[in-house]
Amino acid sequence: MILILGGTGEARELASRVPAVSSLAGRVREPRLPVGEVRIGGFGGVDGLVQWLQDNEIHAVVDATHPFAARITANAFEACQRIGVPFLILRRPGFTARPGWIWVDGVAEAAAALPGERVFLTTGRQDLAEFAGCPQWFLARMVESPEPPLPQRIQVLLSRGPFTVEGELELMREHRIDVLVTKDSGGAMTSAKLDAAEQLGIPVVVVRRPPLPPAEVVATVDEAVRWSGTAGA
Length: 233
Description:
Blueprint: E1 2-5, H1 9-15, E2 20-24, E3 37-40, H2 45-55, E4 60-63, H3 70-83, E5 87-90, E6 101-104, H4 107-111, E7 118-121, E8 137-142, E9 154-158, H5 165-174, E10 179-183, H6 192-200, E11 204-207, E12 216-218, H7 221-230
Parallel strand pairs: 1-2, 1-4, 2-3, 4-5, 5-12, 6-11, 7-8, 7-10, 8-9, 10-11
Helix pairs in contact: 1-7, 2-3, 5-6
């Protein structure tokens, strides 16, 4: 049996094509569930994951988590290394850079590099604390309501993609947005905001992806399916 980590679109597609149990972190109250067996919640660190893999006779692990779930990926890699379980990272390609983009190495750096006064913030609710001391006005879009600390001037928009270019243009015009902040998550579900920002001439602050452990990495579900066929699953 394969263990698939993550609730991304790629993880769900992979779960529909190979015998697997899917594991979701549980950070979203109503996640989009994949087909097949699903477990929700953490493993208790590397030691807990090692024990779970052994107890459940897992023959291979595919990490298809969000590109910024660095701790989960690092823990999974270490656990598999300890007990010799084949490990693969499935990561969609990042966004293709465009003129007007400002690349930063972390959310804190993004907060210090805002070239505008009305910010469309799309980095997720867990990163809002980094912007708490910023004087700018924020439109922050996320799936679930955030917890403090928050920026003093903020409007929260609860919404889940995919989004359209037309909708993003209307949203940015309505709120007079003059800078977009996002992560290099890649994928088509949230790329419409980048097209809208480009059309409006709005600068985009993009947080680079964290580094990956020295594991095998593929970019497509087809590649992950082929790998699973040779990994003893």
